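> forwarded from #structure-qc
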């Protein structure tokens, strides 16, 4: 069933065209390549869905604990899964077999991000530990304890060779990606930073306090603070060149003009969204947004004029 969310917007709207409900528990995380979207659920499965029609592929990974985060690296045919017990699994997508299993982390892994320009993988956990991995040799390079509570998200600024950490203590930490030194720390959100997005000359943060904040990426001075949602903002995703999406525990998805931070569209359950917390979102390059939530749904939207 196709659902169009009719709201006044500037040029483009999100139109829901597909809904998948095949997990038996909340869906925590998504990852995407050119053909598939991968979903990680509290039912302890990571599964794969065709981007064109939402049909389930015969690929599935049964985990011994709930997978909280996943990442796909198409150039290396790798799927990486982080569990709530800290285990880290590397799956070869050509053979559909596990090729590496690591037990470095001892608490839940909340975020996994890759930097293919340097063949590095970054993993953040609930104890504030950031681990850095060599993707070619699939080995640990170093482990950095920040004692900041949960690291909920990571974001890169390649032009500055910097990595930004979203930390539970309310601060954003800035680490250089050459020597991995802590360069800067600044307070951003009450009760914790939950999501980050780099947009040109801006760093945009979302917090457990439900605010969106815009920071100058050179000085880290606050440029704008917006009460964006009613509860924690779990993910910020760039959508094209001048838009972004935020998803929240308040059950809503919002489409924003990322230049001026104006709301273009609000999607709730009544208009084709989720009935419970929205936990993650990914944007596939062919103008497709995919979201997931505690309601076990995976929703597919097209960004249309």
């Amino acid at each position: 069933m196709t659902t169009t969310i009719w709201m006044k917007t500037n040029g483009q709207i999100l139109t829901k065209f597909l809904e998948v409900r095949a997990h038996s528990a909340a869906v925590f995380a998504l990852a995407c390549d050119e053909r598939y979207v991968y979903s990680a659920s509290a039912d302890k499965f990571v599964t794969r869905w065709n981007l064109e029609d939402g049909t389930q592929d015969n690929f599935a990974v049964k985990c011994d604990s709930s997978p909280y985060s996943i990442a796909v690296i198409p150039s290396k045919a790798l799927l990486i899964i982080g569990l709530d017990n800290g285990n880290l699994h590397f799956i070869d997508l050509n053979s559909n077999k596990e090729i590496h299993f690591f037990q470095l982390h001892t608490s839940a892994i909340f975020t996994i991000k890759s930097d293919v320009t340097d063949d590095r993988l970054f993993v953040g956990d609930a104890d504030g530990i950031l681990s850095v991995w060599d993707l070619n040799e699939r080995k640990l390079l170093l482990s950095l304890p920040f004692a900041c509570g949960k690291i909920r998200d990571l974001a890169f600024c390649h032009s500055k060779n910097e990595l930004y950490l979203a930390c539970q203590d309310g601060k954003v930490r800035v680490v250089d990606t050459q020597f991995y030194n802590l360069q800067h720390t600044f307070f951003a959100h009450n009760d914790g930073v939950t999501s980050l997005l780099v947009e040109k000359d801006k760093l945009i943060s979302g917090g457990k306090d439900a605010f969106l904040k815009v920071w100058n990426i050179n000085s880290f001075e606050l440029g704008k603070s917006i009460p964006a949602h009613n509860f924690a903002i779990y993910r910020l995703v760039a959508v094209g060149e001048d838009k972004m999406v935020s998803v929240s525990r308040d059950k809503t998805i919002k489409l924003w003009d990322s230049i001026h931070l104006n709301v273009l569209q609000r999607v709730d359950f009544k208009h084709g969204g989720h009935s419970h917390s929205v936990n993650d979102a990914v944007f596939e390059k062919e103008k497709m947004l995919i979201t997931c939530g505690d309601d076990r749904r995976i929703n597919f939207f097209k960004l249309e004029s």
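QC bot note: The CA atoms of residues 26 and 294 lie 4 Å apart. The mean pLDDT is 94.
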